């Protein structure tokens, strides 16, 4: 009898555990679907208030395109601005500082009051082995989490560098958990005519970007949820 009672209790306990796990999974899925459904809407509710903006820079052409985009951005609307570039990228933040210094000279406002500049570890350097990249990816993820907790941006602007992926993933998780709602706006490079970059493809397929902009009409036809905005360069 005791063995029978023990088996019954074990079975009931297992069923209860599985039921609890199933309920949690269903609630998480519902929350994820809710986040995806509501994506792209937050800014319209606070049209008159400045929003803290995280700007993710990449080396070479990515930074040039982003700076061209920032040149026509409403600076008083997207304020303060936080610039992030890879730790091994020595030029992108310098170019961003030059842009902010020119804006400060025109407005008379100190750069320290409107912009901050930060670096983030890369998940993997060019030529690095995949074995050692496991460790560097872990470090980069922890660093990205710390930066996101510190900045807590309302808007994220990015246009292709791989460094944007951990930051955007963490931002999406924060949305699901209700920690912070960060609207993610991804602008695909003008060099991408027929296919999205890997970063753009991940954000598109995983429904993480609130809005994904492309600069070629044939690219929008292939990815119908993207928004064609014409050439920005």
Automatic annotation (TrEMBL):
Pfam families xref list: Alg14
UniProt KW keywords: Endoplasmic reticulum, Membrane, Transferase, Transmembrane, Transmembrane helix
Spans traversing the lipid bilayer: 12-37, 129-149, 169-187
Subcellular location: Endoplasmic reticulum membrane
Gene Ontology BP annotations: dolichol-linked oligosaccharide biosynthetic process
Membrane topology: Single-pass membrane protein
UniProt xrefs under InterPro entries: Oligosacch_biosynth_Alg14 (IPR013969)
Cellular component aspect of the GO annotation: UDP-N-acetylglucosamine transferase complex
Record-level Gene Ontology MF annotations: N-acetylglucosaminyldiphosphodolichol N-acetylglucosaminyltransferase activity
Signal peptide: none
Annotated family: Belongs to the ALG14 family.
Name the UniProt record assigns to this protein: UDP-N-acetylglucosamine transferase subunit ALG14
Organism, scientific name: Trifolium pratense
């Amino acid at each position: 009898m005791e063995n029978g009672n023990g088996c019954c209790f074990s079975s009931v306990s297992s069923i209860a555990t599985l039921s609890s796990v199933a309920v949690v999974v269903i609630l998480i899925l519902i929350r994820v679907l809710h986040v995806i459904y509501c994506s792209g809407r937050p800014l319209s509710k606070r049209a008159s208030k400045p929003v803290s903006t995280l700007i993710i820079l990449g080396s070479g052409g990515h930074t040039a395109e982003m700076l061209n985009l920032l040149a026509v951005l409403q600076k008083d609307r997207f304020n303060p601005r936080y610039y992030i570039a890879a730790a091994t990228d020595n030029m992108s933040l310098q170019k961003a500082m030059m842009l902010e210094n020119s804006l400060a000279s025109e407005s008379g406002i100190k750069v320290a009051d409107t912009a901050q500049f930060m670096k983030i570890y890369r998940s993997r350097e060019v030529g690095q082995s995949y074995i050692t990249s496991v460790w560097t990816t872990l470090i980069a993820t922890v660093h990205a989490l710390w930066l996101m907790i510190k900045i807590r941006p309302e808007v994220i602007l990015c246009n292709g560098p791989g460094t944007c992926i951990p930051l955007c993933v963490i931002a999406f998780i924060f949305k699901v958990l209700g920690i912070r709602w960060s609207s993610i706006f991804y602008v695909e490079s003008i060099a991408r005519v027929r296919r999205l970059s890997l970063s753009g493809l991940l954000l598109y397929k995983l429904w993480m970007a609130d809005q994904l902009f492309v600069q070629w009409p044939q690219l929008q036809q292939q990815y119908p949820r993207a928004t064609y905005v014409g050439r920005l360069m």
